[in-house]
Predict the structure of (wild Malaysian banana) hypothetical protein.
Amino acid sequence: MDPYIRDALLLLSLFFFFFFSAVVVADEEEARALIEFKKGISSDPSGRVFGSWNQPGAGSAVCGSWYGVACDAAGGVVAVDLARLGLVGDLKFSTLAPLARLQNLSLAGNALTGRLVPALGGVSSLRRLDLSANQFYGPIPGRITELWGLTYLNLSWNNLSQGFPAGIRNLQQLRVLDLRSNGLWGDIGTLLSELRNIDYVDLSSNDFTGNLLVDAENLTGLGNTVKYLNLSNNKLSGGFFSNDAIPAFKNLESLDVSNNQLSGELPSFDSVFSLRVFRAVANKLHGSVPGALLASTLHLSELDFSGNGFTGNVRDITSTSLKFLNLSSNMLSGLLPSSIGVCISVDFSNNNISGGLSVMQSWEPTLAIIDLSSNSLSGNYPEASQLQNLTSIRLRNNSLVGSLPSTLGNYPELSIIDLSLNRLSGPVLPGLFTSLTLISLNLSGNQFSGIIPLQSSHSTESLVLPSYSHLESLDLSNNLLIGPLPPEIGNMQRLKLLILRNNTLSGELPSELSKLGTLEILDLSMNHFRGRIPDMPQSGLNVFNVSYNDLSGTIPETLQRFPSTAFYPGNNLLVSPNGMTSGSNGEGGDSHHHMKYSVRIASIVGSIGAVMLILFALMALYVIRTQELCGKNRFRDQATGMEVKLGRFGRRKIFKSSKDTPATNSMSFSNDHLLTSATRSVAAHKELLTEAVECGYSDHRTESTVNNVLQNHPATCTTGERSSPGSPLGSSPHLIDLGVSEQSVMLDVYSPDRLAGELFFLDNSLIFTAEELSRAPAEVLGRSSHGTSYKATLDSGHILTVKWLRVGLVKIKKEFAKEAKRIGTIKHPNIIPWRAYYWGPREQERLIISDYVNGDSLALYLYESTPRRYSRLSVSQRLKIAIDVARSLYYLHNEKGLAHGSLKPTNILLTGPDLTARLTDYSLHRLTTQGGTAEHILNLGALGYRAPELQSASKPFPSFKADVYAFGVILMELLTRRSAGDIISGQTGAVDLTDWVQMCNREGRGTDCFDRDITGLEECPRVMDELLAVSLRCILPVNERPNIRTVFQDLCAITM
């Protein structure tokens, strides 16, 4: 053999030997790295990882045998895909560093946790990284911007925090960036300016701030390529993209900026020809809707501007591509457009559109969903027979009149009809009950008359229901219907809701009701039904009411679980199994029962009154003496500069009083409002005792004792008037002015020392230091059961409200921080948001910080005594306040999953010339211990706002339904201008507010309880009656009480 050939073969052999040896070593090293990575997985429900990722033998490969692992031709690991396996564990990403050829890492859809360490940025071969839908936390490591080859990055649905690291412009190959549903923050304009060559960007549901007024030249890197941009559910504010910047988005197809605080007018949008979807729900945008968005020049298919402040007319829609249009909850006016193009769904609800519905006859037959509820529409319902694709029609809360056209019952696809709260009349269309597609029918609150048109021996036409009706919800309440309830009702086998209350229906209840096995709500109250109540299915029925009828016999066993209010008043001959008969529910029995009850109450009240008079005299002397001692020991000679030392801080600070010795007055705090001495009730005596105990520190205490009191209870005792728990001072941002000669003392409280704890910001739009907060001059606003509130002015002039929480009230730091951050995400125009919280080194240093809002509490407007600073609230103002509060509760309950927990007039501020209601002191129970929560609920009970179910609970905790109860009480206060804790003398004895209102309503004299200042107004009877009905529903037993969504809708349906 030629020696040259022999040498070449030898060299080639050596090459292959070392090459394959290196491959084997690399394979083993990568296998060991994956084994280390697997150690972080604690649970593998499918067993696919634990069952295949085993320690390999020498030289063996992981490819083909290890689940989710893929390799290249040389045997190197290029992909690890463990998505959606239900894995649990705390991963160490640093173990993946040896995977030098890894291009795809997907762990999406598991329950994995851990921090994203900088070592992840060292896997420079990565092209695709998907860690979505896990529980990873901490900041995004800065080294992630070193993954220059990355094309897909999905970190959505985790618990990541802080901002996106600088240098994202280095990721020139990145095409998809999905960071939604984390806790990331930073300036949105800066981040958008950094993005380059990207197609898909989703930053929704984070805490990004800033505005969208980004210069056009800074958007070119993003605008040239981006097709999908989602910035919804952040904290954006200020202006929208300008007219100059919009043309930069040359390929934009979908834009979503919903649920922010963006304001101003929109640009023209006449050059974004690629735009298909545009959503800007729940912002503060105003002006007119850009005409180009509704015209044929663009190819838009979906436009949702609901929940803004757009004005003007709704233009004719000439677009040939727009399918879904939602302009609801704005301030649009004028007439309905004569053309809606080829829209499938149109929602103009909750505006001020007027005129008739005749234009519907010219609308295209493509239309399937129409919602024109809560406008000012009038006239008749038109034929509109061309709308053969109609599936849903909602015209609730307008002023429509006349009878319904027969075509309404002939639409072949119609499944939802809501024509409630209009003035429609005539018979109910029989065709509505023979439809094979109708699921929900609501004709309540109209003037329909005649019988329910099912088959009946009294009707001239025989209508047979289909053997399998799809109807699930039927509401014909508050009409003028007569006759019996036909037995054919039993054919509606899928019925879940049946409400026929407040008609003139009569006859016996058909036994076929027992066939309705899916029924959940049945209300037949306020009719003239007689005879026995048939057995009802026991399983799903949650709400049942047959009160105010003429039923007799015994309540069936299947219905005995419902409260007595489900059967009485009315039904005098109906016997309950526990012995309650008509004698205790009819008029005579009721009167006799109340007479005995009144005698008993009178005896008790008389005895208590005698004792209270004695105690009051003694306590009055004690309070006077205590106040004198408080003044002498604490604030004497302050006008001449005497200093008060606070024991723990070792340096002196001054409490400046605006008046040396305030004049005495004849007023005390009771049940959240001021009462003159002539109108004090037993509750007022109780409140006075509470005040005396809280302020009654003995003058024989040493200075160190006084210092300790001030240390633990800042500004607890002062000269002049101060807040008692639950008084209007407790939440109002202003102390109450007691008149010319009765000035309240304003304390300039200079913080006693430098705050040495931690200040955590929940809103980065305003930054200040703990030291700056320490030296901020402050005024005491008041006290509540949660703590003391101050008005503090920073060096910059910005004014804050600082709530100093009571000692021993709050949870441990970790739980406190978690709940505070959750509450800190609340942002709603009717709720005052939190800015920060402070956690100090001592137990008494727990602060909640929010913006100071210039306004006064609802309590002041309702109960301030003469001389008055406030004009009486009109009917329309009271209705608006009720709607504002209900709207904010709806947001808390449904958007944030949080109960308010302390709803009362002192925690409702009325701001601005239009008296916009804004909630304060919300969800504080989330920060407190069980003991602190129970104590607060006990205080709410004393004030009259505690739901009955909380009284009997072993561990009471605020709930959504408890909020609804408190809201119902507030509605009664708005109607009556009486306090929830007032003891009212009536014909049947002394009762509280809720019992009194219920009693007046039962006796048919509901108007007797209305505020006399407004009972003479023309709009009073209808509006006040409807408000009264809502308030009574709110205080029903918990299993009958509506949720806040229903209450809010009912209030919005009330028109002036």
